[in-house]
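ok here's Claudin, seq below lol
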Amino acid sequence: MVATCLQVVGFVTSFVGWIGIIVTTSTNDWVVTCGYTIPTCRKLDELGSKGLWADCVMATGLYHCKPLVDILILPGYVQACRALMIAASVLGLPAILLLLTVLPCIRMGREPGVAKYRRAQLAGVLLILLALCAIVATIWFPVCAHRETTIVSFGYSLYAGWIGAVLCLVGGCVILCCAGDAQSFVRKAGM
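and the structure came out like this:
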């Protein structure tokens, strides 16, 4: 019973974390930039935000974004963070699908419990790898962006990325370490 609850908890936390990573990848509010203090930048309409896909300017009643489409002139850290976040988003799909097939309420023919156990272990490893990609990208981007411009604060996308990566890491560790051993999967498959 405990292993079943841990599998469900691992699946739910991993799924919510993966959604957070997808949201982080697709939004542009990674860091808020300004050359002055925030009140001064708001008065001068110079408060901006920077993300993987666009640089944005936030003015009174206006939010204008300039897409970053020229790959050859982009800094290396933006390209690397894009690749890491896309890899994390793509790795999440097979991990979540594997976790769906491992849930105790799902049976796939007369497969042995050991096969289910191996799928659970593979899903846990994929989730930990996904979390590491997201953590590296969400830490590397603001550090390198700070070297280019003055960062005033982190944007909500970074917070969503950090929370999503931690949830995926916790979910992967729960699936990998705490969801039971091969014998418990064999007993469940025999029921």
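fwiw Helices lie at 2-26, 38-43, 76-102, 113-148, 156-178, 182-190. kinda neat tbh
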